[in-house]
Structures are given as C-alpha cells and as structure tokens.
Design brief:
The protein is of the alpha+beta class. It folds into 3 domains: 159 residues, PAS domain (Beta-Lactamase), CATH 3.30.450; 87 residues, Signal transduction histidine kinase, dimerisation/phosphotransfer (DHp) domain (Helix Hairpins, Orthogonal Bundle); 154 residues, Heat Shock Protein 90 (2-Layer Sandwich). It has 9 helices and 12 strands. A 5-stranded antiparallel β-sheet has the order 2-1-5-4-3, with helices on one face. It has a 5-stranded mixed β-sheet with strand order 7-9-10-12-11. Strand 3 and strand 4 form a beta hairpin. Helix 1 packs antiparallel against helix 2, helix 4 packs antiparallel against helix 5 and helix 7 packs antiparallel against helix 9.
Length: 474
C-alpha cells in the first residue's frame, strides 16, 4: 500500500495533522486544567478570608472562641467542604466535617507567616480514595490570639471536568483525523488523476505512434509543466526517429546508386566474351569512380555515426591556420579549374592555432568543394579571413544562383543535397556528392567550440561563415 503515492501523501497529511492536533489538544488541556485548579484555589482562598473575617467579628463581640469559630464555619463552609479552626498550639477549637465524615487535618508543619498555603492530600470517602485540595491560613485577632484555619475541598469536580475535556478532545481529534484522511485520499486521487491518465497514455505510445501526446489538464501547474516537458521529449524523439528513417532511406538510396552503376558496368562488360582494351579501361574507370564515391559515402557516414556516439575525439595539435587554409584552397583549385571557376584567396596573417588539423582540413575542403560545385562556369569563389573579437572568421562566398528561402533551414541536414532537394538551376552534381559535406563541416566547427552558419543566399550568390574561437589578444 505504501508503494502508492496517493497513500503516502494521505499518510503524510494525516500524520502532520495528527501532530498539530496533538500539540493543540495538549496545550488546550493544560490551559484548562490550570484554569480549573486556579479557580478552585481562588474559591478556597475566598472561603478562608471570609471565614477569618467572620471569626474575628464573632470574637470581637465577646463570644466564646469555640462558639465564635463554630458559627463562622457554619456560615461559610459548604456541605462538601471540611474545615477546622486550631489555636496556635494546634489544639482543635471547632470543626465542620464534610459529607462522609471527612475531617480537616492540621499538617505537621505550619508556616509561621499569615500567607495562604495550598497543598493536595488524599482522603477515603465511601470506600474510595479521593483527592482533596487543602487551604491553610493564620489569622491574628485584635485580642492577641492567633488561630489557624484549615479548609479542604474534594477535587472530583475538577477531575470530572478534565475527564470530560479529555474525552471531547480525543473524540474531536479522531473525527478530525478520519475526515482529514478521507479528504486527503480524495484530494490526492483528484490531484494524481492527471498522472494516472498520463501513465495510461504513455503506455500506449511506441515507435509507431510517436505523434501522440500526453493530455495537459492545466498547463500552469507542476503536472501540466511535466506533461508539456514530456511532450517536448516525445516531439524530439519523433523528430529523431523521422530523421533516422530519412537517414536510412537516403543512405540506402545513395548506396544503391553506385552499387547499381557497378553492377551495370560489370554486367555490360561481361556480356561479350571479347572486348577491346579501351572498352575495358572505360568500364574500370566507371567502376573506380563509383567505388571511390561509395568509399567516401561510407567514410562520411561512419564519421557522423562516431560523432553522434561521442567516440570521435579531437586530436589537438599546434599548427598555422593560414597555412592550412592555403593548402585546402590549392587542393580545391584543381576542381575549380576543371569547371572554369575562379578561386580567390585573400592574403591573411600568420595565425597559430590549436585544434584537430585533419578534421579542420576536411571542413575547409568540404566548404570549398560545395562552393565550387554550385558555382556555374565563369563564376567566382572568394575566401576571406577575419579576426572578429574573440573568434577567427573564415568566409566562403560564391556567385551561384543561391538557395531558395524555404530550403535554407535544411541545408545542414544529412543527405539533404542542393541539386536533388532544392533544384538549383544550372547546376550539376560534379563528383556525385551524397549531401553529407555540410553536415560534417558543421559538426567539425561545433567540435572546436565554433559554429558554421549560412550568412546569406540570394540570386547573387551564397555566403557561409566559419567561426572558430581565438585566443585572447595580448
């Protein structure tokens, strides 16, 4: 039962309320008991004072001391009170016994002061032991005599009232706890109902129906925010699964194309028993190109998979970033010259840098290759280097046809190729890229705590900017 959150909440609620009620009940009981005993003591004090005044008056009229004491006791002592008057030597002058033949006794030690003295004693009444409250006070008369007046009163009235108070408080606490338990159980059930509903809905969600979402009863409370957070997680999972499905479909398509070309080339070549050396060379050239393309796709996919799994660690070393950019530009000039595209690299200062030289070279080559591929013959690709505050900026600008605005948010997605998905007019996919170059370049920049962004793209061309963290200037 305690495995239920509802039961634990109810028990905590009832437990805290029980503690509060217990403290409250004990405090109320203590205050009432103190008040009742104080009232009893006050009554005893009043009786003693009034009896003493009567005793002094009677004695002043010249009556015998025993007669004066007896008259004073008869006047002020009630039927359940026991009273007695003693002289200063402890001799009994007069007494008035209570019901049940209960007598007031003089204690063995009496204070010499005239202050009121109060104490509790026990007596046997009708075979039962009863507690009695005793008040004692000295009175000095004008005649010079001193008397000790003792009055006792049973505590059963106070005891009965306290017993009644305990019973009422006990019943009230039990009823309150029962009502609190039922109310707490009901409120916990109502409060946790959205959790039960979310649990039932979550149990029905699988990889096949990730588009479903949890119900949100109140988006402003904690459960509503929890459901909203879980729905955001489901949305991310849905996107991840969709990307994975697209990745698998695109990967299958990209791998199927070179494999199909390989099989076609080999099949056509083997259809005839005898072919010329030139025909064999042409077939082997096609096979070699498709094998290279297949190798590059597999290597790129393997790199991204290792990056996603966090297994590709950077091999940091010191090198000059300007030299690396110059080497990458020279390598890209071969493709640019073949296509008739001018590649311009602005001069840049010597720039020491610490990072993974191999990955950064691949990033630069991917961006240069992408710019050259999508620039028509006669166009121009410009590469500039700038120091921007705490970052190095490498800017790649081409004079291609630009990227349609609707396609720009997707250019860094895997297998999202410019020619296939965005149909940039007048562009052919030289080299058969698989649409992984920009995705890899962006990951490399992010792995170096930098970023790769599309700065602009319109009919006049496209500009990409790589920002890499730079050391503070001295």
């Amino acid at each position: 039962m305690l495995d239920s959150v509802r039961a634990r909440l109810t028990l905590w609620h009832v437990g805290v309320l029980a503690l509060v009620l217990a403290v409250f009940s004990v405090s109320v009981y203590a205050l009432l008991a103190r008040s009742l005993y104080a009232r009893l003591d006050s009554d005893l004090g009043t009786t003693l004072r009034e009896t003493g005044v009567s005793l002094a008056r009677e004695a002043g009229e010249g009556e015998h001391e025993s007669k004066s004491a007896a008259d004073a006791l008869d006047e002020h002592i009630g039927p359940r009170q026991a009273a007695a008057v003693f002289d200063e030597r402890g001799r009994l002058i007069a007494e008035d016994a209570a019901l049940g033949d209960v007598h007031a006794q003089l204690p063995t030690q009496v204070s010499a002061t005239n202050e009121l003295q109060l104490y509790t004693t026990q007596s046997v009444e009708q075979g039962h032991t009863v507690g009695r409250r005793v008040g004692l006070q000295r009175f000095a008369l004008v005649t010079g005599k001193t008397y000790v007046l003792v009055v006792s009163q049973p505590l059963d009235e106070v005891t009965n009232e306290l017993r009644t108070i305990r019973f009422v408080l006990g019943v009230a606490v039990l009823v309150a706890l029962c009502l609190a338990g039922l109310g707490g159980w009901f409120l916990a059930q109502r409060s946790l109902a959205p959790v039960v509903e979310m649990t039932a809905r979550a149990q029905k969600i699988s990889a096949e129906n990730l588009e479903q979402r949890l119900p949100i009863a109140n988006p402003r409370d904690e459960l509503g925010r929890l459901a909203a957070t879980f729905n955001e997680l489901l949305a991310r999972l849905d996107d991840s699964f969709a990307q994975q499905r697209r990745f698998m479909a695109d990967a299958s398509h990209e791998l199927r194309t070179p494999v199909s070309v390989l099989r076609t080339a080999t099949g056509v070549t083997l259809e005839q028993a005898q072919r010329s050396e030139g025909e064999y060379r042409d077939a082997l050239k096609v096979i070699d190109e498709q094998a290279r393309r297949l190798t590059r796709i597999v290597e790129d996919m393997f790199m991204l998979a290792r990056a996603d799994a966090g297994e590709r660690q950077l091999q940091r070393q010191n090198f000059n970033l300007d030299e690396l950019l110059w080497e990458a530009a020279r390598a890209a000039e071969v493709l640019a010259a073949r296509k008739g595209v001018a590649l311009e690299l602005h001069s840049m200062p010597q720039t020491p840098y610490r990072g993974d030289e191999g990955l950064l070279r691949q990033m630069l080559l991917n961006l240069l290759d992408n710019a050259v591929k999508h620039t028509p013959t006669g166009g121009r690709v410009r590469v500039r280097f700038e120091r921007q505050r705490a970052a190095y900026a490498i800017i790649f600008a081409d004079t291609g046809d630009g990227i349609p605005p609707a396609a720009q948010p997707h250019i860094f997605e895997r297998f999202y190729r410019v020619d296939k998905a965005r149909a940039r007019t007048g562009v052919t996919d030289v080299g058969g890229g698989a649409g992984l170059g920009l995705a890899i370049a962006k990951w490399i920049a992010q792995a170096h705590n930098g970023r790769l962004e599309l700065q602009s793209s319109d009919a006049s061309g496209t500009t990409f900017v790589v920002s890499l963290p730079a050391p503070a200037e001295r």
